[in-house]
Structure formats: structure tokens, C-alpha cells
TrEMBL record:
<dbReference type="InterPro" id="IPR051673">
    <property type="entry name" value="SSDNA_exonuclease_RecJ"/>
</dbReference>
<dbReference type="InterPro" id="IPR001667">
    <property type="entry name" value="DDH_dom"/>
</dbReference>
<dbReference type="Pfam" id="PF01368">
    <property type="entry name" value="DHH"/>
</dbReference>
<dbReference type="InterPro" id="IPR038763">
    <property type="entry name" value="DHH_sf"/>
</dbReference>
<dbReference type="GO" id="GO:0004527">
    <property type="term" value="F:exonuclease activity"/>
</dbReference>
<dbReference type="GO" id="GO:0003676">
    <property type="term" value="F:nucleic acid binding"/>
</dbReference>
<dbReference type="InterPro" id="IPR003156">
    <property type="entry name" value="DHHA1_dom"/>
</dbReference>
<feature type="domain" description="DHHA1">
    <location>
        <begin position="306"/>
        <end position="390"/>
    </location>
</feature>
<dbReference type="Pfam" id="PF02272">
    <property type="entry name" value="DHHA1"/>
</dbReference>
<feature type="domain" description="DDH">
    <location>
        <begin position="35"/>
        <end position="185"/>
    </location>
</feature>
<protein>
    <recommendedName>
        <fullName>Single-stranded-DNA-specific exonuclease RecJ</fullName>
    </recommendedName>
</protein>
Length: 394
């Protein structure tokens, strides 16, 4: 009997542009025992995507030379020079960027100069040009006829994995990859419709019976047993996996979801549960601080930053503020010379299009209509703000 996923694939007959090409190149790399580097964004979409590709390649006998997640606060978003300097000893290699890269023009050129062959698997909106990667897979790129544009990178990675396996993915591995696909899709706040709805339904149906130790640990640990329903449990899991705890450049979510035993996973989970209480308190404190500021100077958009704020929390803070005040919300961490920010907008307001109208000010920007980010020199912050207000109100 065909599953919902099988039926969905028949419905979406037109493949994502370059997906088959990427699968064939990875198959070739596996066959020839080429070095492969997986480079992913450190959020749950990126982490889940990396795990699916890593386990796909390993299952088929391929070699993973390195897995790398950039630290956004220290290195910026996506492919960056610090990371490439660290990885250059691995060249020549197939460099696969997951959930990032579509806005990294100079960095992609540098990667190629260092001897990397670059494949970009991303789902963020494409700006005016493309990086000169060998292969780009992004449903938003020009010429892509795939009808559903709301996939998370993990959804694309799942489809890529199916092609790499040539239809020989085992039912148990397929089920497990769907669990990760559901997790990454929900965490990235992608629309729960069309193909995503099917991914989520299929993936979450086996969550509580997962053979993945990192997921099983949650359902065998308090307070998850006391949550009222599966949706609440999933929200709690995502919240815990978003807690910052980096070890050997690997985020906690990657370490937990690739744990080799439930005992190992439970040990890390206990640590994250303790940190999650502190995280919640810090988020509430930052939200309160922003609310005090904006109460004194109401404006059409919310544009606030501080050098003392925790960069890893500003996305959660921006989401709360935006939902509460229903205004475009720009929250940023001030560094010595630059600021790194996150953007959340109410439904119907495209954050990327808004920033594009003021693109002379940020160093880089991009993302999704309702959730995006930017990096900017501090000297341009006020100009950027004034431009945003002007473009938003006119």
C-alpha cells in the first residue's frame, strides 16, 4: 500500500532543479572514495540536513572527511573565511553546504580557489545573483519549476537522500529520516501545508517509538512524560535542542541526535535541561528590556540592539516581540565594529524584500519572508533603520 510520501512524490512529478545532478555527483564521490565535507548551518534545519546526508553517505560506504557548523557570532552566517581556513587542509574535496551558501558569493569563490568543488543545498530566497558553485539546489532559484516553494533544507535533503539511495533506502532508515525531516521543518517554522504537512504527519507518527537514541532519550526523561500531547512534546524537544552548548565545534543538537546510546543521550539531555531554564530567564529579561525601550519611543518598526545581549537568543526574542506587537522586528547583537541581527515580520510582510530596498547598508542579508537575518557595520545602523522605516511606511 503506498504511503503518503509515495503519493506526494507522484503529485510533485517535476523534480527540484539540479537535485538529480547533485545526487549523481554525490554517488560518484561515494563510489570513488572522494573526500566529502558537510558544512551546515547550526540551526535544527541545518543539523537535521547534515545528519541525513552524513548517514546516507556512510550507509553507502562513502567517506566524510569533516563535518562543520559555523559559529554565527564569531564567523557570520554561512560559508566564511574562518571556516575555509580551518578546512583548507582537506582540499581537494567535495564541499556540500546545507541550509546556507546561497548568499555567499566571495566565500564560494574562495572555496573553489582552495580546491573545493562546491554544492549548495539551500532553501533561502535567492537575491539578485548566484554564487558560482558547481551545483546549486534551491527551489527559489530561477528556472526551478517545482511547484511547492515552502520546503525546509531538510525536506530537500530527504529527497536528495532518496535519489542517492536509488530507491533502495530501507523502511526503517526512511522512517528515521522522516523523523528528522519533520523535526527540522517544524523548527524552521516552514508552512505546514502541501508536502511539508505530509512530512510532518509521517515523521511525527513514529517519534515516540524512534530507534534514534537521541530522540528516545527525550521520551524516557522527565518532564516529557508529563506533557499533555505529542505537539507539546515536540515543541519542548525543539526548545531544548536550541540550547547553545558547543563542544569540538559541534552544537548540542548534532551531538544529541547522533548519540550512539540512550545513556549517552540522556547525560547530554540532563545538561541541556539545566541550561534551558537559564535560557528562558535570559530571553524573558531581554524581551522586557526591549519592551521598556519601545514604550518610550513607539515607531512603525522595532529596531533594537545591544552589545550585552546573547546572540544565540535574539531569534527567540525577535519572535516573541513580533508576535506581541505585530510589527517588523529587527533585533541585533552589537560587536566591536559590526552587528549581527535577526528579523521577524508579521504575516504578509516580506522581510527580505524590505531589506532589499535598503541593501546599500547591510554587508549581507537574506532568509525567508517572515524570518531572516543581516550583518551590518555599526556606523550604518541608524541609516539602515531610517531607510527601513521610510520604505515600510511609504
Amino acid at each position: 500500500m503506498p504511503t503518503k510520501i509515495n503519493r506526494a512524490h507522484r503529485f510533485f512529478m517535476c523534480s527540484i532543479k539540479n537535485l538529480k545532478k547533485a545526487a549523481q555527483r554525490i554517488q560518484k564521490a561515494i563510489k570513488n572514495k572522494e573526500r566529502i565535507i558537510l558544512y551546515g548551518d547550526a540551526d535544527l534545519d541545518g543539523v537535521s540536513s547534515v545528519i541525513i546526508l552524513k548517514e546516507t553517505i556512510k550507509n553507502l560506504g562513502g567517506e566524510i572527511s569533516a563535518v562543520y557548523f559555523p559559529d554565527r557570532e564569531k564567523e557570520g552566517y554561512g560559508i566564511n573565511k574562518i571556516a575555509l581556513d580551518f578546512l583548507k587542509s582537506k582540499a581537494r574535496a567535495l564541499f556540500i553546504a546545507l541550509d546556507c551558501g546561497i548568499g555567499n558569493f566571495k566565500e564560494t569563490e574562495l572555496a573553489k580557489e582552495l580546491g573545493f568543488e562546491v554544492i549548495i543545498i539551500d532553501h533561502h530566497q535567492v537575491l539578485d545573483a548566484f554564487p558560482k558553485a558547481e551545483i546549486i539546489v534551491d527551489p527559489h532559484q530561477k528556472g526551478d519549476k517545482y511547484s511547492f516553494k515552502g520546503l525546509a533544507t531538510v525536506g530537500i535533503s530527504f529527497k536528495l537522500s532518496e535519489l542517492i539511495f536509488r530507491g533502495k533506502m530501507t523502511p526503517s532508515l526512511r522512517k528515521n529520516f522522516l523523523e528528522l525531516t519533520a523535526l527540522g521543518t517544524i523548527a524552521d517554522m516552514m508552512p505546514q501545508e502541501s508536502e511539508n504537512k505530509i512530512f510532518i504527519e509521517e515523521g511525527t507518527s513514529s517519534f515516540e517509538r524512534s530507534w534514534r537514541p537521541g530522540l528516545r532519550a527525550f521520551f524516557e526523561t522527565e518532564p516529557f512524560k508529563d506533557e499533555l500531547n505529542l505537539n507539546q512534546k515536540i515543541s519542548r524537544i525543539i526548545s531544548i535542542l536550541n540550547v547553545r552548548d558547543v563542544e569540538n565545534n559541534f552544537p548540542a543538537s548534532f551531538r544529541l541526535l547522533t548519540s550512539s546510546s540512550v545513556e549517552e543521550a540522556k547525560e547530554l539531555l540532563a545538561k541541556l535541561l539545566g541550561k534551558s531554564v537559564q535560557r528562558k530567564e535570559k530571553i524573558e529579561k531581554t524581551v522586557e528590556e526591549i519592551e521598556q525601550r519601545i514604550s518610550r519611543k513607539p515607531e512603525p518598526i522595532i529596531f533594537e540592539g545591544d552589545s550585552n545581549w546573547d546572540f544565540t537568543l535574539i531569534s527567540a526574542v525577535a519572535s516573541i516581540i513580533c508576535q506581541r506587537y505585530q510589527k517588523p522586528t529587527f533585533v541585533f547583537k552589537k560587536l566591536e565594529k559590526e552587528s549581527i541581527g535577526t528579523v521577524r515580520t508579521p504575516s504578509g510582510i516580506d522581510s527580505v524584500s524590505l531589506m532589499k530596498k535598503c541593501s546599500q547598508y547591510p554587508i549581507t542579508y537574506g532568509g525567508h519572508p517572515l524570518a531572516s537575518g543581516f550583518r551590518i557595520k555599526n556606523e550604518n545602523l541608524e541609516k539602515f533603520k531610517k531607510c527601513l522605516i521610510e520604505k515600510y511606511t511609504n
